[in-house]
Amino acid sequence: MNLTVDQSSPENLELIKEKISNATETFVEEKYLIVAQEISKKIELNLTAKASLKSLAEYPFREFPPEPQIDPKTKKRKQN
Predict the structure, then answer these.
(1) How far is CA 51 from CA 10, 47, 79, in A?
(2) Whether 47 contacts 64, CB under 8 Å
(3) pTM (two decimals)
(4) pLDDT tens-digit profile of 33-63?
(5) Which are the contacts of 12, defined by CB distance < 8 A and separation ≥ 6?
(6) pLDDT at 75 (0 to 100)
(7) Angle at 63 between CA 62 and CA 68, to 5 degrees
């Protein structure tokens, strides 16, 4: 199983968490568990970033009213 952070999906995250759990139960070397947990955290962050980007991309464009024109001499609004 070769996972990269680019291949982030909820299914892959669950799969790697299961593998980490199994490795912990079978007393796999600690350095390998640390690397696996780091990858798991990166995948979680990537999934969060993808969800944030998707919500930003779907956010509707808002129209703003034009800014009021202010006369620099009188500091009052210009009459249109």
Answers:
(1) 12, 6, 46
(2) no
(3) 0.64
(4) 999 999 899 999 999 999 999 999 998 988 9
(5) 3, 43
(6) 78
(7) 135
Query: What are the residue ranges spanned by the domains of the chain?
Result: 5-58
- Among candidate residues 48, 52, 56, the one with its CA nearest the CA of residue 5: 48
Classify 65 as helix, strand or coil. Answer: coil
Phi and psi, residue 70, nearest 5°? -115, 130
Whether 16 and 39 have beta carbons less than 8 Å apart is answered as yes
Q: Name which of 36, 58, 47 is nearest 6 in CA terms.
A: 47
Cα separation, 77 vs 71, in Å, equals 6
